[in-house]
Every structure is written in structure tokens, then in C-alpha cells.
Amino acid sequence: MTEPSEPPAQSEPPTGPAEPAAPAVPAAPVKRRRGPGRPRQDEAEDGPGTQERIRLAAREVFAERGYDKTSVRGIAKVAGVDPALVHHYFGSKDDLFAAAIEVSMEPALVVPAIVGDGPEGIGERLARYFLGIWENPVSRAPLLAVIRSALTHEAAATVLRGLILRRVLERVAADLDVPDPTLRAELAASHMIGIALLRYVVRVEPLASADPETIVALVAPTLQRYLTEE
């Protein structure tokens, strides 16, 4: 006859104070991905200083590499910012190209200076302004980029039309209140761009080596007639 098995031993209840529960570990914060063109909050708050740094970097890179070989990522690298910040401030590559070239031309400042007190002498003021920005090595480099790129890229041609024709010459002609201001602006633009191509891009002599004052004296009467005579 088998003996009954002993019941399993029961553990005695613990004596003394209970140990405190381990503190709960907070969950790791969820990282939200930024959509295109949306910089971090600290990046967006950098303000006009960062925007100007990007614009100047774009002018440098476009002048060095031309329109087709320049990328937003390359400009961001030179400016020391995230590419998303470039899109945030300037949108597309075309918009950034226009903004970079506009730094050299400053149409908002030059139009009142060219128009001056009236039509008298406007041809000379326009010729002197145009040659002045081309004679300055800092502003010449990006303008060379836009002239060269405009021959093969429609986006660059659009920038050239927008800045030189629409933003400067058409506004000058409109302020003079003459008939056919658009046609007159285009004639003046053809004269100025032709000089830029032959003097600074193709470098045809003796135009390439001519004194700027000599060019101003010869060109100013024609520009005056385009913009003022009815």
C-alpha cells in the first residue's frame, strides 16, 4: 500500500517592508519626418541672415558652374545649410537663379536712379549703369553665367527677360510715359545685351578693350532716342 504523498511546501509570506516598484521608463519621443521644403524650427528661425547667405552662395556657384551644372544640394553645401532650407526660402532652382542674379542688378534701387528727374540724360544714365555692373568683377561673374546659360536653357532665358527687360527697362520706359514702352525697352535691351555678348563673352576687339566712357558716349544717344523720342 502506497503512502500518501506530502503536499507541496508553501512559501512563507515575506517579512519586512515591501520593495518599491521600479520607476516607469518614459517612451522614446516619436520623430516626425519633415516634408520637402519644411526646415526644422531652429533652421526656419535663422531669418534674413541665412537667406542672404544662401543667395550669395547661389550667386557664387552659378557663376562658377553655370546653370545646368548647378544643383540646389551643391548651393546648400556652400551655404552650410540643409537643402530643405534652400527650398523653404527660394522654392525651385529657377527661382533661386533669379534671386542670385538680382543681387547683382538691384532693380528696385536702380530704376529710380536711371529715371532721375526726367527724360533728359536718361540714355547716358542707362548706359553707365549697365556697363557699371559688367565692369565690376563681383557682379560680372553671375551675369556671364546668365548670358551663357540663356543661349541654351529656357529657364535662364526667362530670368534674363524678367530681370533686364521686365524689371528694369520696361519700368524705365513706363515711367517716361512714351508710346510703345515695351518695344522701346526691347530695342534698348538688344543694344545692351549685344554689347555684353561682344565685349565680355566673345571678347571682340577693339570693343573688348575699349574704355567704358568711350562706349557710354557712343551708345547713350541711341538709348536716349529709343526711350524718349516719339
Characterise the protein shown here.
It is a single chain. This protein is mostly helical and 230 residues long. The protein has 11 helices and no strands. It has helices at 41-44, 48-65, 72-79, 83-90, 93-105, 107-115, 122-135, 137-150, 154-176, 181-201, 212-228. Helix 2 (48-65) packs across helix 5 (93-105) and helix 9 packs across helix 10 (181-201). The radius of gyration is 33 Å and the shape is globular.
Quick structural overview:
The protein has 230 residues and is mainly alpha-helical.
Write the layout of secondary structure elements.
Elements lengths: L40 H4 L3 H18 L6 H8 L3 H8 L2 H13 L1 H9 L6 H14 L1 H14 L3 H23 L4 H21 L10 H17 L2
Key features of this structure:
about 230 residues, mainly alpha, 11 helices, about 65% helix, about 0% strand
Query: Nearest-angstrom radius of gyration?
Result: 33 Å
The SS-based structural class is mainly alpha
Percent range of helical residues: 55-70%
Largest sheet: none
State the total count of DSSP E strands: 0
H-E order? HHHHHHHHHHH
Q: Beta-strand percentage?
A: under 5%
Distance between the termini: 136 Å
Provide a count of the helices.
11
Tell me, rounded to a whole number, the average pLDDT: 76
- Unreliable stretches covering 5 or more consecutive residues: 28-45
Mass-distribution shape: globular
